[in-house]
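The following record pairs a protein chain with its ligand, N-acetyl-L-glutamyl 5-phosphate.
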Amino acid sequence: MVEQLDLERLRGRVVVIKFGGHAMVNQELKQTFAQDVVTLRRAGLLPVVVHGGGPQISAMLERLDLDVHFEAGLRVTTPEVMDVVRMVLTGRVQRELVGLINAHGPFAVGLSGEDAHTMTAVRRTAWVNGEPVDIGLVGEVVDVNPQTVRALLEQDRVPVVSPVARGADGQVYNINADLAAAALAVALDAEKLVMLTDVEGLYANWPHSTELVRRITADEIEKLLPELASGMLPKMDGCLRAVRAGVRSAHILDGRVPNATLRGMTSGEAPGTTVVPDQGSRPE
Ligand SMILES: Nc1ncnc2c1ncn2[C@@H]1O[C@H](COP(=O)(O)OP(=O)(O)O)[C@@H](O)[C@H]1O
Ligand SMILES: CC(=O)N[C@@H](CCC(=O)OP(=O)(O)O)C(=O)O
């Protein structure tokens, strides 16, 4: 594996790594994720972590006897649910990842998209069968101010960002972590956006087959989006937005495989699904 790594080319470049809640399967995987992030930082890359936590939020809601309900891959978020989302993401999942990374040195600093107006959102609806559906306090990121994240990178830190954002009116919104990661990757002019999840990548014709799509262009994703379901929908939407807005490549990787993060930093085709801009859409 080591000889395929492309760390030299990526020195000084931002790589945004989205660590999905479904990939946080056990302690060992979380520890190797933290180790990989530190390896990237020590090799001179500028990793930025955006974490998920969907299953962790759902588990807490169930403990509190609150509804767990998704529409088009997005959680229906009442004000009560929003409190739990914020608490679990910023108070629990983010803290745990910060702690695991900092076991290697004083690298990680956790922040929420709310902090210093890093992410500003507006309320959004979900689209189900062509109809808009009210999903409560779910936001779409409309502005990213990357100054705080950049300042942390300049201080050799690893920002660990929770997908919660503030509206211009002060309302706090729940943001899908894939879309938060994509928005941040664009604002930071990232070289790569890597999403770690609990499948090998995008499967063609899911759930009827697990035939892996190795490489896909933005145009191809656009055509595919109406057919996609559940968690893969915001993931591919995020990849599409990222590569269309200048991120060189986006990758969906199996976070259950140890060292998946490092394996995403290859010169050739990474494992999983690689999303590339449309041919001719950007000068090399
Ligand atoms: N075409 C597809 N290919 C692969 N997985 C898919 C597809 N469509 C839906 N999925 C689902 O998306 C899930 C990953 O998204 P999600 O559950 O949101 O994970 P994460 O917490 O990593 O963001 C997979 O476990 C799978 O059930
Ligand atoms: C609006 C919305 O759906 N927000 C997500 C935020 C966490 C997330 O995206 O976590 P994963 O990456 O682990 O799925 C949620 O409430 O589950």
